[in-house]
Amino acid sequence: MYIEKVEKELYHIKQAAQQIGSFRFVDLGEGKRKLESLKMNENISAAHILGVFELIQLYAKEEGFSEIHVTSHSELLDNILHYQNFIQKDVEKDLWIFTVANKEM
Known about the structure:
The chain is of the alpha+beta class. The radius of gyration is 13 Å and the shape is globular. Strand 4, helix 1 and strand 5 form a beta-alpha-beta unit. It has helices at residues 46-62, 75-83, and strands spanning 2-5, 10-15, 18-29, 32-40, 67-71, 87-90, 95-99.
């Protein structure tokens, strides 16, 4: 799987050159991005979703982002975000934040 930037904020998730999903990264300034409108093909499993989040986190690190913000809409997504080391910052707004580790080599 890999990510292809299509427009300023629009990205496609591809596997073997075939689009299997898409999402938006909205620029919040200071290297922070909000992940929005994540959509995957219907035949994607829950385990595949974990791989998608890992891919997005790796992409964010490669691009030098400082944080990824996600607004959760379900208990299942809450569990996935927690598993992927996102921290719930605002319970009322269901806001989760992942701090990208950009270590110099």
